[in-house]
Amino acid sequence: MIELPLRDPGTPDVRSPVRLLVWVGRHQIATLLAGVGFGVTWMLAQALMPFAIGRAIQDGIDDRLFVVRPLRGHGFLHMHHRF
Asked: How far apart, in whole angstroms, are the C-alpha atoms of residue 2 and residue 6?
């Protein structure tokens, strides 16, 4: 169980904006690392999605028209030539 109110974090270092941000970041390191981890995962997923879609389409084309073959097998398309 979390004990509230939280203990006093101490006096922030306000000599410069950078020192203040470092002080705050040091006290929230778990939250910062979790945010970085989720952000990297999210951006990596977005970057790899076009590759995955392109690969799926290419694999379908390589398998000789992945849409025509099932339709032909069920009798919906009557084609006399072979693919």
From this structure: 8
37-48: pLDDT as tens digits: 999 999 999 999
Q: What is the pTM of this model?
A: 0.53
d(CA 37, CA 39): 5
Q: Has residue 6 been placed in a domain?
A: no
Q: Is 59 a member of any domain? A: yes
Nearest to 71 by CA among 55, 83, 57: 83
Is residue 51 included in any domain, yes or no? yes
Question: Which amino acid does the sequence have at 36?
Answer: V
User: Taking a C-beta distance cutoff of 8 angstroms, is the pair 13, 19 a contact?
Assistant: yes
CA triple 68-71-77, angle to 5 deg: 85
Domain that holds residue 50: 22-73
Asked whether the bond before 5 is cis by omega within 30 degrees of 0, the reply is yes
